[in-house]
Amino acid sequence: MLCPRVYLMNLRFIKNNTPKVWKWRPEGVKGAIGKPPCRARRREIPCARRKSIMYCDTINLPHCQMTVYIPDLVADPAVRRPTIVIAPGGGYTHLSTREGEPIALTFAAMGMNAVVVRYRVAPAVFPAPMQDIASAVAAIRQNADNWHADPNQIALCGFSAGAHAVGLLGVHWQEAHWWQEMHLTSADVRPNALILSYPVITAGEFAHRGSFRSLTGTDDIAAHQPHSLENLVTPDTPPTFLWHTWTDGAVPVENTLLMAMALHKAGVLAEVHVFPRGGHGVALGNQVTNIPSEEARKIVPEATVWTEMAARFIRQIFTKS
Q1: For 37, which DSSP code?
Q2: Residue 120: its pLDDT value, please?
Q3: What's the pTM value of the predicted model, to 2 decimals?
């Protein structure tokens, strides 16, 4: 049973161990990243999920930023946690703050490391968002000892267009040519699981056309087709958790259903949940991520369980791996 709202306040910033990053800035790469979040901003979370956050810092990568949240930093080097890499949505034009830090604090309160990636959006085009998320995955592996992260337990959690971005990494990670200019390997950027929240998937009949327009920089539908995820799934795609709402009016639920069928056809383990109501951009589905003017679509009590379901799914996968 949940108690009255409490504030997660114990945020400490540790600078002793400088994170390892690399220099990569090819000529001609442009694109906007959003303003980094306030690292000590208060967030309301249920007390049943409350846990002290002992490490929170924003790190500059070559073309993007990542904010790291680590619960209960301990001295025992044997302690290794899963890491959730969060990619907010925003149609590849901006990044939603509702789908960033509140999600990270929720997973951190479950005892997982969490990272919010502020990847490039328009005017940057493919492969910039995918490469930014890949650079965050590589940074986690490079800093696994300092952050008590298990390098083989990295799950990507994306929302809407952010889910498309992490899905791109999920289907392309083994293609080495994408990472050569970054001086990384496929093993460096490999995701171990995906969590796709009301995802943009298809460039076909049920496309969210604006996302593909921003990703490619063109209205040409033929240029959108190569990024239609349901056609790119292979047996190398990581196990995937998907969730959507039946009444999503912006990104139709068919996006999740098409991806689920593609995963099934490829023999990739998946768990799929479709909740009966709720508009697009539900996020946590509670007051933490509510938009008062859209409360009827953003407060969805039946969907609030998705974080626990997703955590259980990835823990089961990581336990078996």
Answers
A1: P
A2: 98
A3: 0.86
